[in-house]
Design brief:
By secondary structure, the protein is of the alpha+beta class. Helices cover 32% and strands 21% of the residues. It has ten helices and 19 strands. The chain has helices spanning 31-42, 50-53, 109-115, 122-128, 133-149, 174-182, 190-205, 235-244, 338-361, 366-380, and strands spanning 4-9, 15-21, 59-62, 64-65, 68-69, 74-79, 90-91, 94-95, 153-161, 164-165, 212-219, 249-254, 272-274, 278-280, 289-290, 293-294, 299-305, 316-318, 325-327. A hairpin with a 6-residue loop joins strand 18 (316-318) and strand 19. The radius of gyration is 22 Å and the shape is globular. The two termini are 28 Å apart. The structure holds flavin mononucleotide and ligand EPS. This is Chorismate synthase. Belongs to the chorismate synthase family. Pathway: Metabolic intermediate biosynthesis; chorismate biosynthesis; chorismate from D-erythrose 4-phosphate and phosphoenolpyruvate: step 7/7. Its EC number is 4.2.3.5.
């Protein structure tokens, strides 16, 4: 492991912190790019009241001087504005409010309370909440700064909301990227977005929720990140694991990976070579990964997000304190958060790619990494 991080923080506590280690010295980090990704994560049609309260920004505490990494651990914090309303309820210094015992199906509430011997599921849900993805996105922005330094760009697009899919098999081009950024559903087709808004509205009207899927892409990757030699060094296993590590992601797919009904001739990508382009493929069904390594084609991974579990018209459950039948507790909730999850998806993919990149080319200083990248490119031409 070259890059590593830890995060801490509760959804309604004072703030969320992250410490990252392993970035080479001499990397310029644009703070605005970090905050831009934090803003992107807060957007999206179907989000609930919380996002009107927060305006996430990363405050850096260590590891950079004048916007440039020093090689020391990087520390940052994202403050929770909503904590002002929870000071007496959720804090290292106070614990108050009615106990949360009407455990919600689809959440960590039940298993977490039993496993950790807690009589208040609040102690579980505060950390299980996807609020922590704000720190993940800030860390991902650091990884993107490293990748960007070497010409690698990470992007994403929502490809399904509920039953209505709009699949694509290549990364968005420049114009499509602009359209995606302008869209409240993180898609480059306004007609599809209108259909998706109607689906979200219908679920909201009946007190329900809706899920979907998104693709994450990376362009400009060298051949050979990751490794075939052990399962835990395979980049496909690491990317799928990282995507399923995001709250509410239930499955992830590499390239056309689930299309196993296709015959082999329609599943694999022939290899071509010419001196100008080097090794390349006429198709990219593998999604840029073969044998657990990048194959030089754009990376394409898809993640599937379940419908948000907290619903205005709640499901049946059992009260943790009395063991009697009741209904799941509702405070407030998103109805759909697939566009936000796509930004988190970019972050976790960027992190895994940056880690694999530094495993292959790593050095303590950016200049060392540059030399390793150049030497490798010359060798494999
Ligand atoms: C960006 C994002 C926002 C989310 N917002 C909510 C929400 O408002 N309400 C909710 O019940 N779940 C929300 N979730 C999902 C829950 O955090 C998640 O389903 C829960 O912690 C249980 O984890 P699991 O689904 O991975 O099993 C959100 C997830 C993400 C990625
Ligand atoms: C706070 C965020 O998402 C939250 C994730 C979440 C959950 O259960 O995962 C539940 C909601 O929290 P609250 O109960 O405070 O409204 C979401 O708003 C965020 O994305 O920053």
């Amino acid at each position: 492991m070259t890059l590593r991080y830890l995060t801490a923080g509760e959804s309604h506590g004072p703030g969320l912190v992250a410490i990252a280690e392993g970035f080479p010295a001499g990397l310029t980090v644009a703070f605005e790019a970090v905050d831009r990704d934090l803003r992107r994560r807060q957007k999206g049609y179907g989000r609930g009241g919380r996002m009107k309260i927060e305006t996430d920004q990363a405050q850096f505490l260590a590891g950079l001087r004048g916007g440039v990494t020093t090689g020391a651990p990087i520390a940052l914090v994202v403050w929770n504005k909503d904590h002002e309303n929870w000071k007496e309820l959720v804090s290292p210094y106070a614990r108050g409010g009615r106990k949360f015992t009407q455990v919600r199906p689809g959440h960590a509430d039940l298993a977490g309370a039993l496993k950790y011997d807690l009589d208040d599921a609040r102690d579980v849900l505060e950390r299980a909440s996807a609020r922590s993805t704000a720190t993940i996105v800030a860390l991902g922005a650091l990884a993107k700064a490293l990748l960007g330094r070497f010409g690698i760009q990470v992007s994403s697009r929502v490809v399904a909301i509920g039953p209505r899919a709009r699949l694509a098999d290549a990364p968005p081009d420049g114009a499509q990227k602009l359209a995606i950024e302008a869209s409240d559903l993180h898609v480059d087709d306004e007609a599809v977005a209108a259909e998706w808004r109607a689906l979200i509205d219908a679920e909201k009207a009946r007190g329900g929720s809706i899920g979907g899927a998104f693709d994450v892409y990376a362009e400009g990757l060298p051949i050979g990140l990751g490794s075939h030699v052990h399962p835990d060094r395979r980049l496909d296993s690491r990317l799928v694991g990282a995507l399923c590590g995001i709250q509410a992601i239930r499955a992830a797919e590499v390239g056309d990976g689930t299309q196993v009904g296709r015959p082999g001739y329609e599943f694999h990508d022939p290899i071509h070579y010419d001196p100008a382009r080097g090794f390349h493929r006429p198709s990219n069904r593998a999604g840029g990964l073969e044998g657990g390594m990048t194959d030089g084609m754009p990376l394409r991974v898809r993640a599937y997000m379940k419908p948000i579990p907290t619903m205005l018209h709640p499901l049946d459950t059992v009260d943790l304190a009395t063991r009697e039948a009741t209904q799941a507790r509702y405070e407030r909730s998103d109805v759909c958060a697939v566009p936000a999850a796509a930004i988190v998806g970019e972050a976790v993919v960027a992190w895994e790619l940056a880690n694999a990149f530094l495993e292959k080319f790593g050095g303590d200083a950016i200049a060392d990494v540059e030399k390793a990248v150049e030497a490798y490119a010359a060798r494999i031409r």
